[in-house]
Amino acid sequence: MSAEPSSQSPWQAATITRIERRTPRVTSFWFRPSRPFTHLAGQHVDVRLTAPDGYQARRSYSIASAPGAGTAIELAIERLDDGEVSPFFHDVAAVGDEIELRGPLGGHFIWEESDGGPILLVGGGSGVVPLMAMVRHRTLRNTAVPVALVFSARVWDEVIFRDELIGLDDRLDGFNLVLTLTREPARRPSDYSRRVDARMMAQAIERLPTAPRLTYVCGSNDFVSAAADALIDAGIPAEIVRTERYGV
Q1: Do 26 and 149 have their domain in common?
Q2: Which of 74, 78, 143, 204 has the most other CB atoms within 10 Å of its CB?
Q3: Cα separation, 84 vs 79, whole angstroms
Q4: What is the pLDDT of residue 247?
C-alpha cells in the first residue's frame, strides 16, 4: 500500500498494549499512539523500525480497528519469512515495546457511515484487514447499512477474524459473510471452495437488498485483478469499484 508524503503525518512513538494470535501466520498487535490519533475505516499506517546501526525498515499496515473503538489501534500483521519488519513483530516484539508509526494514511479506500450502502466487500488473505475496519465501524455505529463480505482464504485455519465474522453473520442484521476456501472444501453450506469468479460475485450481490452503492476490493495484485474483473463481469460498474493492492 502506498504511503502519503511524510509532511502530511509526522512519525510518533506508539506502545504495544496487546498481542493476539489470529491464524498460524497472522498476529494482531494493538498500538497506543503517544499523540491523539483519529482514523477512518480503510486507512493504514506506516511502521518504522530502526536497528542499532541506524538502518531503518518501513512497512505499511492497514488498521483493523473501527474508528473510535478505543485509544489503541489494531494492526493484523502477517509473517513474511523474507520480510524486514514482520519477523520482528512475530519473533521479538512484546507488550510494552515502543515502535514508530505514521498516519493515518490513505483517502481513497475508506468507508464512512454517511457514504451509505449497500456495500460489497471483497478480500483475499490479509486484504480483509481494512474491510474488517469497515465491518466493525458498521457494528460500532449500529447502522443498518447492508453489507456483504466475500473473503477468500486458502484454508479454514487461515480465515482471519473467523469467529468474529461468523458471529456477526449469525446476527442476521444486514451483514452477510461469504467465505471461499481455495485449498480445501467449504465448511459452511453457504460458502464456496474455489477462487472468486463472476458467478460467486453475482450470488453475493443477490444477498444485498439492492445493487451495491460501493464496492471495495483488497488483496494481492493478482487477487485484486481477478476479483475486479469478476465484479465487472457480474454487472458491477467499474466506477464504483475501489481497490487496494499489496505485494506482488
Answers
A1: no
A2: 204
A3: 10
A4: 61
How does pLDDT run across 63-117, given as a tens digit for each residue? 999 999 889 999 999 999 888 899 999 999 999 999 999 999 998 999 999 999 9
Q: Of the residues 81, 105, 129, which one is the last residue of a structural domain?
A: 105
Nearest-angstrom CA–CA distance, 175 and 2: 29
Beta pairing, strands 119-124 & 214-220: parallel
CA distance 49 to 55: 8
Q: Give the pLDDT confidence of 190-219 residue by residue, as tens digits.
A: 999 999 999 999 999 999 999 999 999 999
Q: Are residues 221 and 144 part of one domain?
A: yes
Mean pLDDT score of the chain, rounded to an integer?
Answer: 94
90, 152: one domain: no
pTM of the shown model:
0.93
DSSP states along 166-187:
HHHHHT-SSEEEEEEESSS--S
My answer on whether 161 and 197 are in the same domain is: yes
Query: Exposed/middle/buried for 82, CB within 10 Å: 0-12, 13-18, 19+?
Result: exposed
Of 69, 86, 105, the domain-final residue:
105
Q: Do 236 and 153 have their domain in common?
A: yes
C-alpha cell at 176: 452477510
